[in-house]
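Sample intake sheet
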Amino acid sequence: MSDNIVRASRALVDKLEEINDDPKFQSVWTINQIHNGPYTGPNYVEELSTLKTVLDGNDPQNSVVGGQDRKFRFDTSLGQFVNRVSGEAIPLDEPIIIFRARDHHSFHILREYLSMVSDEHHKTAIRERMSEFAEFARNNPDKMKEPGITHHIRLSSDEES
């Protein structure tokens, strides 16, 4: 790959990540979720992950697609999370939760969850994720925060009042 293409690609990746991490940009998606439901249009998550993998000198065929979750991916055509291996979608009526590495409680939640798991393969996967969360915290102390709920999202308890 030519040096110019590599430089331009790295600059594009950095800019896209800067935009995606910007709270003002993220709020656009929250507003969309409130008014229109889940976004189901096109995205560039897998392509961006593949480009980053290639720029790092790795073979994208052996990497984790999307990079964020090893077991599930978001299928934009379905508007649901789907198991990467079986293709089974998580039903829309099944609640899920996402713990982000920037939430300074997440590592502790994973450690507690690890203490409850008996399957060794699953334990290894949890330890790997814990290591990634710890590395993120070390490398990004400015991004770590106390979790809080986005107060403009309607809670079920609000509807009962």
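Comment: The longest strand covers residues 72-75. The first helix runs from residue 3 to 21.
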